[in-house]
């Protein structure tokens, strides 16, 4: 429930630690995208690379939160543009699927959601060509 609290509210990691303890705060820190406030001068792409690195070294508990979150994101993309869906699919295949497989958390479910989205994108492309 707390995985996006720092990104979506005024809460800080420190507040999470006070309210929920060090272990929860540590997991939330891994799940929180860095900002230009923390890393001035970095591009959005560079910040994402830092985020992916944090996730890659995160403990299993981080993936127990992130994997279901990514699955939910994949199966609720109805309103997104085909371009954004394609970016999310690519990102999922590159960064999330390998970790889901390594940790044995929802790999097949995410893989099936990606395949479904790829089929949907293929169908959309055929309709517009």
**SSE succession:** HHHHHHH
> Distance between the terminal alpha carbons, to the nearest Å?
42 Å
| Backbone CA Rg | 16 Å
Oligomer: single chain
> What does the largest sheet look like?
none
Helix percentage: over 70%
Structural class: mainly alpha
The rough form would be described as globular
Low-confidence stretches: none
Strand content: under 5%
Mean pLDDT reading: 94
Count of helices?
A: 7
| Strand count | 0
Summary keywords:
129 residues; mainly alpha; 7 helices; globular
Task: Report on the architecture of this protein.
The chain is an all-alpha fold. Helices cover 74% and strands 0% of the residues. It contains seven helices and no strands. It has helices spanning 5-8, 13-20, 22-31, 44-57, 60-74, 82-103, 107-128. Helix 3 (22-31) crosses helix 5 and helix 5 runs parallel beside helix 7 (107-128). The longest helix is centred in the C-terminal third of the chain and has 22 residues, at 82-103. The termini are far apart. The model has no long low-confidence stretch (mean pLDDT 94).
């Amino acid at each position: 429930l707390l995985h996006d609290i720092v990104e979506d509210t005024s809460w800080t990691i420190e507040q999470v630690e006070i309210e929920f303890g060090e272990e929860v705060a540590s997991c939330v820190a891994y799940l929180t995208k860095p900002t230009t406030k923390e890393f001035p001068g970095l591009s959005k792409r560079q910040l994402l690379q830092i985020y992916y690195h944090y996730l890659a070294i995160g403990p299993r508990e981080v993936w127990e939160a992130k994997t279901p979150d990514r699955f939910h994101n994949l199966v609720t993309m109805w309103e997104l543009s085909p371009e954004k869906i394609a970016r999310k699919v690519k990102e999922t295949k590159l960064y999330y699927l390998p970790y889901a497989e390594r940790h044995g958390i929802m790999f097949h479910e995410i893989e099936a959601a990606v395949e479904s989205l790829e089929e949907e994108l293929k169908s959309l492309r055929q309709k517009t060509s």
